[in-house]
Write a structure and sequence with these properties.
By secondary structure, the chain is α+β, with helices and mostly antiparallel strands. The chain contains eight helices and 28 strands. Strands 1-23-26-25-24-28 form a six-stranded antiparallel β-barrel. A four-stranded antiparallel β-sheet has the order 2-22-20-4, with no helix packed on it. A four-stranded antiparallel β-sheet has the order 19-7-3-21, with no helix packed on it. A hairpin with a 2-residue loop joins strand 5 and strand 6. Helix 3 runs antiparallel to helix 8 and helix 4 packs antiparallel against helix 7. It comes from Brevifollis gellanilyticus.
Length: 509
Amino acid sequence: MPLQAKIRSFQLRPFLSTDLSFPRAGAIAARHIRAIDGTNGASAQMGFKVANGFSMETSLYPNLLDASGDTLRGTSTYIHGVLNPQAFFVLRNEEASCELERALNKRETLYLEKHKAGSLADLAIDWQRRLTSKLKHLEALETSIGERHAKLDKLYSSWQIQRYTPDGTPDGGPVPAKDYAYKPETHSEYLKNAVVEREGDFPWDSPGAETVSSVITKNKSLPVGTVNIGSHTNINAVTTGAQGEEERKHKHISSPTFNLPTSGLTEAAAAALATLPLPIDDNGAVTPATLALLVSVIGNLKRYVAQESETFYPTNRSTRFNEDARCPWEEELSRWHRELSALEEEIIQQQTYNRRLAELERIWTLELKQMELDAKRAMLAYADSFLTSPIAGTVTHVYKDAGEYVQAGEPIMRVESSDHFLLVGVINCHQPVRLGMVAVVKLLNVLEDGGNIQLKGSVVSIRGHDSDNDEWEVVVELDKVANLLDQIPLNYTFDRGSYQMPEAEMTLT
């Protein structure tokens, strides 16, 4: 039996109403203002009718991971092409675009390295063979290192080391080689640019050179003749100069000719030379016939003079003793342990990888899947910079504009449905009102032109029954009515306390 109810107040509300916002903070880069009829895409202006809501779940997300050659379809260019026509506002997204391209490049690199070449199963078989061979070589190397160490251990056990003092005398008795330790010395010399010239009768180790500005070469011709030795000699020696500093001497005999002197000989050598017939040619050279005899006489010379030029480089010498002592056997032990440790670590790595080869195809597939998920996360972050409406309706509010900074979840604009409505209000009914009841609302003479409106729907919500006056707060979902907003403005309120409503009734069935 139909129930009659009196209407206390009613308001026409949209069935769907959403305040659109970005899921992340950022600066608004663009507010799209397009044709009001929507021919060029969404327009962020009040009164714009959104013909169809845009669902990313059906129109964008399923296609992002589709392969397009070696890469994925969900590039920044693709996402921009799909979302930009549907977007009312766009945040600055250059950084998100870079992160997306980086993720796609990493995924593509992995794909090219491990998946494009061919069958992963065949590759795993080939690697298994090579890895088995490598493990054999590593084990052989481990054996070789151990054998070498054993030989050195045997030698060090039999060796004895004798220490000596700087003057060459033994320093104690021999010590076992394994116990031998020493401090290494480092010697350095710093040359000075100085030149000395020496001339005269002197032995090789004679001291007393003087420093001059240039090299002077003086030739002496002695009446006893010359001997062509036929050699070229460089002699390096260290001597002490006149100033008492160490000098480094570079002696270069510039001619293979030695001049035999008449002085500085032993008495026996001088007497022998005095009695010898020394045939000399026109150039003053001794003839070959007497060469053998002269050679035997030269052996008795104490001093001689040669055509020579000598350069002396005075030096500063330093000797540095290292702080740390050296112990050869202990160093060998350390080297052996390091080699074994590194080798064992490599063997463990190879054995671990050998176990992975059995599941190589699955592991690489999961790695690629992980890369694709990372890429999809970057795709979604880029897509979040576009503000679209998931529902159809009318733009009723715009809160922000281009250039403003917004927080995540901050309302940007509102879209409300324009073909589906609710009546929300208070009624008086002396009998219980139940969900699902069909409600027919008649509004007579409610508008200025005296027109009548009849709305039909069903009760979808009941609240707050007051036993004193039988008031019910109800929500009625109206059946869709074409052009209802042309008759009643959205959010229009009917209130008996403010408006004259002589005839307004509701029938509940």
